[in-house]
Structures are given as C-alpha cells and as structure tokens.
Amino acid sequence: MNMVKEASGRDSPAEWSEPADGGATLALRLRLSCSARDRDLRVGARHTIAHCKAELHAQEGIEPWRQRWFYGGKLLADRLLVEEAKITPGYVVQVIVSTDPHPPS
C-alpha cells in the first residue's frame, strides 16, 4: 500500500497549528475503506493512534477494534504517537475497516 497524495494540491489535510494551551494539533486526512470517502480528524500530536481510533469511533461509530490504520504502507501501532508517525502534509492515512461484526476473542 502506498502513500496517497491529495489530488487537489491543497495544504490543509495535515497542517500543524498551535492552540491556546500550547499543544500542537494536526488535521489528519483519513480514507475510510467502508465508505470510500475521505474525512478530516483533528487530533493532538501527543495523542496515540489508539486515542485517534476512539475519536473516529465517537464521530463515525466505527469501533476501534475494527480499524487498522496505515501510512506509507505501514501499519500504525496503537501505542504510536501521532507525531512519531511523521505524517506528511497532503497525504492520507488509510483506515481499513473490518466487516467482522464481532471483536476478536
């Protein structure tokens, strides 16, 4: 799986900004396999991928155990911090959503 460059050429999907509390936030561009559409998710640079999965669950209703996040052809581990993933502005994180209705045992 390769990184996907945003076709529009916009700088928006992964721009860093500094909120008032001093912690950096990042707008991740996610491509969801279950809906064939992209969505933006604002997260903190010091959040883990597991936290991001929980945020996506809150917004889209996709349980975290059903989500596998890939960037640059590599699976992003749940304990990895967003800033450690070094997601390049303008690129997309692929979210593969399992169709299995039951969590693994």
The largest sheet, given as strand count, sense and whether it forms a barrel, is: 7 strands, mixed
First and last CA, distance: 27 Å
Number of domains: 1
* Strand residues, percent: 25-35%
Q: Secondary-structure element sequence?
A: EEEEHEEHE
Q: Would you identify the regions where 5 or more consecutive residues have pLDDT less than 50?
A: 1-22
Total count of strands: 7
CATH topology (fold) name: Ubiquitin-like (UB roll)
CATH architecture: Roll
Could you name the CATH class? Alpha Beta
Organism: Parnassius apollo (Apollo butterfly)
Protein name: (apollo) hypothetical protein
Domain Ubiquitin-like: 26-98
Pfam families: ubiquitin
Write the layout of secondary structure elements.
Elements (H helix, E strand, L loop, with lengths): L3 E2 L10 E2 L7 E8 L4 E8 L4 H12 L6 E5 L2 E2 L6 H4 L5 E7 L8
Parallel strand pairs: 3-7
Antiparallel strand pairs: 1-7, 2-3, 3-4, 5-6, 5-7
InterPro entries: Ubiquitin-like_dom
Organism: Parnassius apollo
Pfam family, one: ubiquitin
Describe the protein's architecture and organization:
By secondary structure, the chain is an alpha+beta fold. It has a single domain, classed as Phosphatidylinositol 3-kinase Catalytic Subunit, Chain A, domain 1 (Ubiquitin-like (UB roll), Roll), CATH 3.10.20.90. The protein is 15% helix and 32% strand. It has 2 helices and 7 strands; from the N terminus they run ββββαββαβ. Strands 1, 2, 3, 4, 5, 6 and 7 form a 7-stranded mixed sheet that branches. A hairpin with a 2-residue loop joins strand 5 and strand 6. The termini are far apart. The N terminus is likely disordered.
